[in-house]
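A reminder from the course coordinator: this example appears on the midterm review sheet, so study it carefully.

Given structure:
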């Protein structure tokens, strides 16, 4: 079982995270509950920062907020000295509300609205990553109207297909994101960006996918980018001060995953960037990476209370929990495979094979297909590991299930960072049109 970070098993045989017994956390905050190991998040941030300091001091770690973003998370990321990548007005609003340093914010997105761009410009954020020609023109005009200038990167698609799930691949040419390097499309975009009066083109951005294990995809990407930079230096006389290589480093969800450490990843990038810059006789650019999953993924654990248990002899034993695809849609969406443990029986021998089902009205709402556990009874506490990334941020209210609370556990104390939704919150946005307000509810016979 892959215990990570500060996780351990205490003398009561219970799982502990950040020095907190999770059985106590479940009693205090309820279930389902996202528990984050704050120490581990901080450690991951420091590993990235330290790796850059050791291997490539002109480096930037930009946390990809889409993995998990709340006000507390923004504060933590700011404290650790990271930059932040946001992809919507909502994420930007969260960062600004948290007082995140605006000059350390990058704004992404393939269809930023006018309102979102105005919000970013008025806030004075550090950099906008422009995705397409339409945005380039709109942004230049908005700057004109607001009498401001802004730093931009152009997002390009290098044509690299990283070996990952097709829904989370983004670097291939046929993609909704970015300017393809092929067919002169990116070159034309660079030309237009250089002509734009209010935009300062700092460099290029690319992101080839997510949950990537093989460093070579990044190496090939870097080589392709430098080849392009070499060409356009000759044609347009422009070189990039900054190359942002996106996120994508994989993590260990289960025993079949063998990720590379952030240290190896940065060391590798530093080496290939140096080699390629040397070969093309280009100055070393500032290098940015945008890790999301590898900062927060392994630090998250979701606690569920076990309810109904259904044994179909010779077929399967279902253990049902009080959450599921609402708080973690990744199994249904990407066939993600998680590990879990019975948190209040962490020392007991595993004697059976079960499947963990969620409580949504959908057969696809399964969390784990095959899990070895000790004897389980209703009321036990199941801890699904490695759920820090893309769970709360992708959670829904399907079946009108309230979204869970989240806590940061740190050195023996646990603090709420997201309140549990209530039933009142679920209906807070519902509106009753006047013609339905006076409706008398008819009896079945009248209807
Ligand atoms: N930068 C850009 C431009 C991105 O599009 C992404 C992720 C990242 C950085 C962060 O990638 P990471 O280091 O977290 O792999 N919902 C999917 C993942 C979608 C990733 C989208 N972009 C999942 O649950 O696996």
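Designed residues:
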């Amino acid at each position: 079982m892959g215990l990570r970070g500060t996780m351990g098993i205490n003398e009561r045989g219970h799982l502990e995270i950040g020095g907190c017994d999770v059985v106590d956390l479940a009693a205090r905050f309820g279930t389902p509950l996202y528990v984050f190991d704050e120490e581990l998040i901080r450690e991951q941030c420091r590993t990235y920062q330290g790796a850059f300091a050791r291997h490539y001091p002109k480096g930037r770690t930009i946390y990809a907020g889409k993995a998990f973003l709340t006000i507390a998370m923004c504060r933590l990321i700011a404290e650790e000295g990271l930059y932040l990548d946001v992809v919507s007005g909502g994420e930007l609003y969260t960062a600004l509300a948290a007082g995140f340093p605006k000059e350390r914010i990058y704004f992404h997105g393939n269809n930023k609205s006018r309102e979102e761009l105005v919000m970013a410009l008025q806030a004075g954020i550090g950099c906008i990553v422009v995705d397409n020609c339409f945005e380039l023109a709109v942004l230049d005009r908005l700057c004109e109207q607001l009498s401001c200038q802004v730093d931009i990167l152009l997002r390009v698609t290098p044509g690299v297909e990283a070996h990952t799930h097709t829904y989370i691949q983004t670097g291939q040419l046929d993609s909704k994101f970015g300017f393809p390097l092929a067919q002169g499309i990116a070159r034309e975009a660079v030309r237009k960006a250089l002509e734009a009066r209010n935009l300062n083109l700092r460099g290029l951005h690319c992101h080839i996918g997510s949950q990537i294990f093989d460093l070579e995809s990044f190496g090939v990407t870097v080589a392709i980018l430098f080849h392009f930079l070499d060409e356009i230096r000759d044609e347009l006389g422009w070189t990039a001060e900054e190359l942002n290589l996106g996120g994508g480093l994989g993590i260990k969800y289960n025993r079949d995953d063998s990720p590379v450490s952030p240290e190896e990843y940065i060391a590798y990038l530093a080496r290939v960037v140096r080699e390629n810059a040397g070969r093309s006789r280009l100055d070393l650019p500032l290098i940015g990476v945008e890790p999301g999953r590898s900062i927060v993924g392994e630090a998250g654990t979701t606690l569920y209370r076990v309810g109904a248990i259904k044994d179909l002899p010779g077929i399967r034993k279902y253990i049902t929990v009080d959450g599921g695809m609402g708080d973690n849609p990744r199994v249904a969406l990407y066939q993600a495979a998680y590990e879990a443990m019975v948190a209040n029986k962490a020392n007991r021998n595993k004697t059976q094979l079960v499947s963990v089902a969620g409580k949504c009205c959908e057969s696809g709402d399964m969390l784990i297909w095959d899990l070895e556990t000790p004897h389980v009874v209703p009321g036990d506490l199941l801890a699904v590991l490695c759920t820090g990334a893309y769970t709360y941020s992708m959670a829904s209210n399907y079946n009108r299930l309230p979204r869970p609370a989240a806590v940061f556990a740190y050195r023996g104390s646990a603090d709420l960072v997201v309140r549990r939704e209530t039933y009142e919150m679920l209906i807070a946005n519902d509106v009753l049109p006047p013609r339905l307000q006076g409706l008398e509810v008819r009896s079945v016979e009248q209807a």
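The CA atoms of residues 424 and 432 lie 15 Å apart. The first strand starts at residue 8 and ends at 9.
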